[in-house]
From TrEMBL:
One of its GO terms (cellular component) is cytosol. InterPro entries: DNA_helicase_UvrD/REP, P-loop_NTPase, UvrD-like_ATP-bd. GO terms for biological process: recombinational repair. The lineage of its organism: Bacteria, Bacillati, Actinomycetota, Actinomycetes, Kitasatosporales. Pfam families: UvrD-helicase. This is ATP/GTP binding protein.
Length: 680
């Protein structure tokens, strides 16, 4: 290929080099800022220094990542009047905005409105785009380009080869962004407004996780000031998953998004115990919220004695009936228990001040505050509306059968109450062996007492595995904000897995959320997803099967084996290919497989650890496979994966997850017979 200055590829490489130089200059300008004389005090200086440091990080040039991946040539300048002879305008679309020394854009942020036609325009709807150009890269070097003349009726629509290559590119290391390959149906979700909650049902390989992360990046771009004030949060199922996705947002220039698991959010106590499935189901049921509310407000006692406040030589008496009216009014307002308790002494003090004014005195706010702190008032508040510790409340419910029966009457059956009662008494909150479900109950009780702070936007991934009480815990974090809920009902692998998204959104407190379904599979090869979809009639019969749009069919094999050595051999075969390999098996088989790999001299990683050129095999317990992906996968003993779960339906769902982790090829090894659901 020619490398002359007239060669289009050479010109594009020149623009890339100039853009990288401009980005370096932007970074150097920020690094050179002197803030000594522009801050009033050391606090402001610290804040500004932190902001500058974050800006410097956001302007980092990732040498192995394309600075721009596309180009749009508009027939007319966007926003200008369209007249005959008017000149068009050209924009390079990339991960972040880059401008030259005089402020003219060299690369436009993919989130800008002018970039949207890169994802949405088509031959049927060209959106005033004459040319859409996609770029191919090797590392950070521009190596190819591909043009679509969208407004040319003589050119037929066709599938982009570069787009297919980018989708199918081998992946080593953490999850990468999909900013160059976002499809129109994905882009609609990514760019939906901040005010509404969106729930994305997506089968394996449909890109739902990436769509959710890019939606956060888009919202931070479109609503920067608001979300900087209110905050954003990405919630994943476990630490391995969060480690796997953590580089996506920084690659898009977004550094301020917190990541957590649900367990992190409700970490009021140390979790040292576990529940059996039956107990976890009851504790995770939304009805427990009503049990907790009853138990908490049962602490409120209507007064039977007056409050007598002594100030100097005067005695002021608030009769019990007036106190009762105050208490009932606070209860009727349905404000948080703790907020009502804080308001009660002020209400009593106000009643005293009314009497003072009637007697001719002129008390002010300072007098009211003094009365509210009076010993008699404080004693009355303690008796009427005592302070309650959330963990102690939950502990008493779980250890006192009569107390639980009293507050769960008509809510939980006798068998359900017996299921969640602890067998042995516990001396204190600290000595209790709390389970993950117990921690969620404590979080609910904490919110009943004091309102949980709300964030501007929350992304909840792998949501299908949450219990109703866990949904409520997440919903508390976005009561005044919005959410993006991501999941696949077919991949629900907990006994309390989500039955419907409408129900989930209700528990989240977002009943008006919109449910979108992604059914085009960009990651899983056709033969693999077709094989895995044999399970759908048994685990989620109402879902639309994923249809792979991959041109590369990948490789797929079901292989009988006689022992562990044959499984290791399958791994060795796949490691001859470029990219990452995952060996997935039932959790109980992991130690044996790890030993066999060590004996064969094959190094392996744990889920979430970053693959390297030297170590490209990850040994994955089936329980941690969800959300992860590898170029090639060996899945050992499907029946063992099913048998490891408490019931067959959950086991089949776990198997569905493990079968759909491969991007390019899958070998299923088995010594035992295959599950009948895969052979029928």
């Amino acid at each position: 290929m020619s490398t002359s200055a007239d060669d289009p590829l050479s010109r594009e490489r020149s623009h890339l080099a100039s853009s990288r130089a401009a980005l370096r200059a932007m970074r150097e300008d920020v690094e050179a800022l002197d803030i000594k004389d522009v801050t009033a005090n050391w606090v402001n200086a610290e804040v500004l220094a932190h902001q500058i440091d974050e800006r410097i990080k956001a302007l980092a040039d990732l040498s192995d990542t394309p600075l721009f991946f596309g180009r749009l040539d508009y027939l007319h300048a966007p926003g200008a009047e369209r007249s005959e002879g008017a000149e068009g305008e050209r924009f390079y679309i990339g991960r972040r905005h880059v401008h030259d020394a005089v402020g003219d854009p060299m690369v436009i942020d993919w989130r800008a409105p002018v970039s949207q036609p890169f994802y949405r325009a088509s031959k049927k709807d060209p959106q005033d785009v004459g040319l859409r150009r996609r770029f191919g890269y090797t590392g950070g070097d521009l190596t190819a380009y591909e043009d679509e003349h969208l407004s040319d009726p003589a050119e037929a629509a066709r599938t982009s080869k570069l787009l297919q290559q980018e989708i199918e590119r081998p992946r080593v290391g953490p999850m990468r962004d999909i900013v160059a390959t976002i499809q129109p149906e994905q882009d609609e979700i990514v760019r939906s407004g901040l005010g509404g909650t969106v729930c994305v049902q997506g089968g394996p390989g449909t890109g739902k996780t990436a769509v959710g992360l890019h939606r956060v990046a888009y919202l931070l771009y479109a609503h920067r000031e608001r979300l900087a004030r209110t905050g954003t949060l990405v919630i994943g199922p476990n630490r391995s998953f969060l480690h796997y996705i953590e580089q996506v947002l920084p690659a898009l220039g977004e550094l301020a998004v917190r990541q957590a698991t649900v367990d992190d959010l409700v970490g009021h106590v140390e979790v040292r115990g576990t529940d059996d499935a039956a107990a976890a189901i009851v504790k995770g049921d939304a009805r427990m919220a009503e049990v907790l509310r009853r138990a908490l407000y049962a602490h409120v006692t209507l007064p039977t004695e007056p409050v007598v406040v002594v100030r100097g030589s005067r005695r002021w008496r608030v009769p019990s009936y007036e106190l009762t009216d105050i208490v009932r009014e606070l209860l009727d307002r349905e404000i948080r228990y703790g907020a009502a308790r804080e308001a009660l002494p002020q209400r009593i003090a106000h009643a005293v001040l009314v009497q003072m004014e009637r007697s001719g005195e002129a008390p002010d706010d300072r007098v009211q505050d003094a009365v509210a702190r009076n010993t008699a008032v404080k004693a009355a508040v303690k008796a009427i509306w005592p302070a309650v510790e959330p963990a102690k409340l939950v502990l008493r419910l779980l250890t006192d059968a009569e107390y639980l029966a009293e507050h769960a009457e008509g809510v939980l059956s006798e068998d359900e109450r017996k299921t969640i009662l602890w067998a042995r008494p516990v001396r204190s909150v600290k000595s209790a062996k709390w389970s993950a479900a117990d921690a969620v109950l404590i979080d609910e009780a904490t919110d009943l007492i004091q309102r949980t702070q709300s964030l501007g936007h929350v992304v909840l991934d792998e949501a299908q595995d949450l219990s109703p009480m866990q949904y409520r815990a997440v919903g508390r974090r976005c009561t005044t904000g919005s959410a993006t809920v991501l999941g696949d009902l077919a991949q629900g692998t907990t006994p309390w897995a989500t039955r419907s998204w409408a129900e989930a959104l209700s528990h989240l407190g977002k009943s008006d959320g919109v449910v979108e379904e992604l059914t085009a599979g960009f990651r899983v090869p056709t033969d693999v997803i077709t094989y895995a979809s044999r399970l759908l009639p048994h685990i989620a019969p109402d879902l639309t099967p994923v249809e792979s749009v991959r041109e590369n069919p990948g490789t797929f094999e079901v292989r009988p084996v006689s022992g562990t050595a044959d499984v290791v051999q399958a791994c060795e075969e796949l490691l001859r290919n470029e990219g990452s390999t995952g060996l997935i098996a039932a959790d109980a088989k992991i130690p044996t497989l790890a030993e066999a790999l060590t004996e064969a001299g094959i190094g392996c990683l744990s889920p979430g650890e970053e693959t390297t050129a030297e170590t490209r095999l990850t040994l994955v317990p089936a329980s941690l496979a969800k959300g992860l992906e590898y170029d090639y996968v060996v899945l050992d003993e499907p029946q063992a994966v099913i048998d490891a779960e408490p019931d067959e339906r959950t086991g089949l769902r776990r198997l569905y997850v493990t079968l759909t982790r491969a991007v390019s090829g899958l070998i299923v090894t088995h010594g035992a017979p295959l599950p009948e659901q895969l052979t029928s």
